[in-house]
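Researcher: We plan to redesign the surface later, but first we want a full-length starting point. C-alpha cells attached.
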C-alpha cells in the first residue's frame, strides 16, 4: 500500500481534516481488503486440507477393509499349523503334509495430516474437527505399531517351517517352542482385528460427515 502526499498543502483546518479522513478511509479499506484476502486464503487452505484428509482416510479404510477379510484366513492357517505341531509332538506319522502361511498387512498412510501440520491448515479449523482427526490418526498409528510387532511374531512361526521338510523330525522342545510362537501369533491377530474394527468404525464416522 502506498500513501501519496497531496499536490499542495491544505490551507485550512477543514481541508486538513478532509485529507486525513481520505487517508484514514484508504488505510481502513486496504486493511479490510487484506483481511478478506487472508481469510479467503485460509479457507482455501482448510478446504484443500480437508479434501486431502478425506481422500486419504477413504483409501486407508479400503485398505483396512481388505486386511480384516484376510486376517481370518491367516488365523485359520496358524490354527492348522498348531494342529500340525500337535501331530508331530504325538509322534504320529504324517502321510501328507500341507501347510500354507500367508502374512497380510495394511499400508495406512498419514501424509495428509503431516501436510496439514506443515502448512498450518489445522490452525484455521475448529478445535472439535482437529480433535477428531488427531484421535483417528493416533489410533491408526497404534494399529500400525501393533501390526509391525505382530509381523515379527509371524516371521518367527514361518522361519520354523523349513525344519518340517527335513529327513529327521525336529526335536520335541523345538516343536513346543514353535507351538508357543504360533499361540502368540494367533493372539496378535485377535488383537489386531479388535483394534482394526475400532479404527474401521472411526473411519466410517468421520467419512459420514463428508
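Model: Full-length starting sequence:
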Amino acid at each position: 500500500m502506498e500513501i501519496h502526499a497531496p499536490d499542495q498543502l491544505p490551507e485550512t483546518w477543514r481541508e486538513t481534516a478532509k485529507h486525513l479522513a481520505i487517508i484514514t478511509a484508504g488505510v481502513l479499506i486496504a486493511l479490510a481488503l487484506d483481511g478478506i484476502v487472508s481469510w479467503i486464503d485460509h479457507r482455501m487452505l482448510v478446504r484443500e486440507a480437508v479434501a486431502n484428509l478425506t481422500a486419504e482416510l477413504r483409501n486407508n479404510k479400503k485398505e483396512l477393509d481388505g486386511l480384516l477379510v484376510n486376517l481370518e484366513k491367516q488365523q485359520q492357517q496358524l490354527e492348522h499349523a498348531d494342529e500340525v505341531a500337535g501331530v508331530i509332538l504325538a509322534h504320529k506319522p504324517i502321510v501328507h503334509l500341507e501347510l500354507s502361511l500367508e502374512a497380510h498387512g495394511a499400508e495406512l498412510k498419514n501424509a495428509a495430516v503431516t501436510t496439514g501440520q506443515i502448512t498450518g491448515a489445522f490452525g484455521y479449523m475448529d478445535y472439535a474437527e482437529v480433535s477428531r482427526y488427531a484421535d483417528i490418526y493416533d489410533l491408526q498409528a497404534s494399529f500400525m505399531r501393533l501390526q509391525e510387532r505382530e509381523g515379527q511374531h509371524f516371521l518367527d512361526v514361518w522361519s520354523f517351517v523349513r525344519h518340517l521338510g527335513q529327513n529327521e523330525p525336529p526335536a520335541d522342545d523345538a516343536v513346543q517352542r514353535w507351538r508357543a510362537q504360533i499361540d502368540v501369533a494367533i493372539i496378535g491377530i485377535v488383537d489386531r482385528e479388535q483394534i482394526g474394527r475400532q479404527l474401521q468404525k472411526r473411519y466410517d464416522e468421520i467419512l459420514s460427515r463428508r
